[in-house]
Amino acid sequence: MIIDTDTASDDAVALVLALTDPRAQVLAVTVASGNVPLTPAVQNALYTVELCGADVPVHAGADRPLQRPAQYATDVHGQDGMGDIGLVLHGREPRPEHAVDVLIDLVRRNPGEITLVTLGPLTNIALALRKAPDIAALIPRVVMMAGAADGLGNVTPAAEFNVWVDPEAADIVYRSGMPLVQVGWDVSRKDATLTLAEGDELAARGPLGEFCVRIQRQLVEFCREVTHIDGFDLPDPVTMAVALEPAVATRVERRYVVVETSGDHTTGATLVDHLGVTGEPPNVDVVLAADRARFREMLLQAGAARAGR
Ligand code: BDR
Ligand code: CA
Q1: 4 Cβ closer than 6 Å to some ligand 1 atom
Q2: Does residue 159 line the site of ligand 1, with CB under 6 A?
Q3: pLDDT digit string (tens) for 127-150?
Q4: 260: Cβ below 6 Å to ligand 1?
Q5: Does the predicted TM-score (pTM) go above 0.80?
């Protein structure tokens, strides 16, 4: 597995899920600008990898979207992306190789074997596809936290954050011909929200569980005030759960999906042709529901794991 992430609070939980799961061999964590600028996103990834006691290289990638100015989500995840709880996040160095080169190299060296999990804007993946179009045919599964199958956005009425930040990159990926699995914000909202009591239960499982919950401090505020959830939703972790265990996706429909790159009000929307009206061949396995109970179990297991398994 390669994990591409704009590491902030929910990305970090997804990393904990993967890095503590004995079924996953994580070859690299590649980082892009998104929730926070590139440098703090890299620091957050390094901190989380170290906390898990994992020997996994972290590589910095794109520091901005392909064509647009960078946009961040510090209102959702905190200024440092990790809930501003006072973690000492500096002092660690990523590996020197650029994330895009590492993506290309690892895919070429492991043809047909890599699951690529994307948890942020798709800038690094689009850059890799532009530089090395051959890799599209070498990746058997791409599981993306991206878009919204029901058309309800979380940044604009139409667009989900990861796609909205870099719609041109998302457009390249959605048209790439790679076997794509979309886990959208709709799935997170319906099936991957923890109540505060469920958060307490996770935190009580062990140091990793406590970390996973404490760093959501700003997200909990955001959910209370903006999305009116008494708890917090975990879009990247449920995406990772689907990547680790495909049966977590309980309803999946293969559909034609396009990304809006030039709408007056809809830039960054993912348009799912639910009724097949375009007649275009389907390009995405769209996840419409997830097994909430199994997802919670996986979180609790990761929360109880000991570092350096
Ligand atoms: C996505 O945007 C970020 O805030 C989260 O990390 C997640 O990847 C949800 O729209
Ligand atoms: Ca993310």
Answers
A1: no
A2: no
A3: 999 999 999 999 999 999 999 999
A4: no
A5: yes
Amino acid present at 168: E
pLDDT in tens, 37-73: 999 999 999 999 999 999 999 999 999 999 999 999 9
Cβ neighbours of residue 226 under 8 Å, at least 6 residues apart?
none
The reply to whether ipTM tops 0.90 is yes
DSSP letter string, the chain: -EEEE--SHHHHHHHHHHHT-TT----EEEE-SSSS-HHHHHHHHHHHHHHTT----EEE--SS-SSS-----HHHH-TTSSTTS-----S---BSS-HHHHHHHHHHHSTTTPEEEE-S-SHHHHHHHHH-GGGGGG-SEEEEE---TTS--SSSSS--HHHHH-HHHHHHHHTS-S-EEEE-HHHHHHHSEEEHHHHHHHHTT-HHHHHHHHTTHHHHHHIIIII--SEEE-HHHHHHHHHH-GGGEEEEEEE-EEE-SS-TTTTT-EEE-TT-TT-PPP-EEEEEEE-HHHHHHHHHHHHHPPTT-
Task: Please indicate whether residue 186, judged by its CB atom, sits closer than 6 Å to ligand 1.
Answer: no
CA of 55 to the centre of ligand 1 (A): 25
**Token pair for 195:** 């109540």
Asked if residues 223 and 216 have their Cβ atoms less than 8 Å apart, the reply is no
CB atoms within 10 A of CB 131: 12
Q: Point out the ligand nearest to the CA of residue 188.
A: 1
Could you tell me if 26 and 17 are in contact, meaning their C-beta atoms sit under 8 angstroms apart? no
Domains of the chain and CATH, by start? 2-304 (3.90.245.10)
Q: 39-71 burial, b for 16+ CB within 10 Å, e for fewer?
A: ebbbbbbbbbbebbebebbbbbbbebbbebebb
